[in-house]
Amino acid sequence: MTLDAAAEQCINVLVELIKARVSYVVQESVVVIKDIFRRYPNKCARPKLPPASRSGKFLGGGGGTVSTQA
Questions:
Q1: Which of 8, 13, 23, 39 shows its CA 20 to 30 Å from the CA of 46?
Q2: Rounded distance between C-alpha atoms, residue 65 and residue 57, angstroms
């Protein structure tokens, strides 16, 4: 197995973790994916990530949401 193939496999696992929609898991997974893309630019396919919620909650996790109401 090459390092490029391992990186792509890691991204696939991280995308599955993101789909779980646990806020701290999503945040850490995104950081790791970003680091993999920096290390291996143009070597890995860009994954299709679930869309962020428009309600203000990050992917449904809600843990880091800040209220702007007084």
A1: 23
A2: 6
